[in-house]
Amino acid sequence: MKVSEIMERAGVDQTGRAIAYIKDALEEMNLISETHVAATRINMVKDKRFYDLPSDMVKIIDLRCKNHNCSDDTYKSIPRTIYQPETKDSDGI
Amino acid sequence: MAYKKYAYYNRGNKVAIVEKEITSGGGNTAVAHCTVGGHTNKTDCEAAGGQWIPGSSSTIGSDSYEKYVSPKEDVENGIEVEYTYSPASEIQDESDVIDVTPYQAKAIVYYLKAKTAEDTGNMEMREYFMRLFKKQLEKERSGRKRGPYIAMGDSNMRTR
Asked: What's the pTM?
């Protein structure tokens, strides 16, 4: 559906405001019901603990690692730790 | 290829990946001794009616403990993130088509109406349309499910 059609149905005639709210709605929709899903892969680096997430990400659905609980190069979901591990990252990166 | 165990936690806008490391500590070695008197060899010990306890070269009661540390080696494409994103950047003007189903588009109409009501200070109307927005999304999701659910086992359920 076009932006103009949505504006007509909602009775809004200010384009800029309508587009801003439509963008908000899309974000909200992806938080609630996962309408747009994507996957990306990141290189794991030795001794690097913290990784950037995709900038357009709204919500993580799953996080998988290669060879987690297996040895055939497949990706399996990894668990989230309840507490942060006692061994801190020495350089904070 | 090595078998590994990973976990994650969140820190600010980043995700922290940690790998399980198993470390074994040194235990104790048994020293050869006699149960009777201060005999230092087996013959004297047994002649005195004692029992000779041999020493051991391997460690007894060695400790091993697990801890999570930063990844221990480079792995190309080692992390896979599945996520939802907002296609907001694709919308520039009125003629653009929003990449949603017609039913989801109707939910956006309710959202717009809710926000318009919020701008005019009509919070009752805002809540009403927001409720319709969420209901519309839920109905859209449930429309894609058919038939019974099946339970599927995973690797953690296997018999060891």
From this structure: 0.75
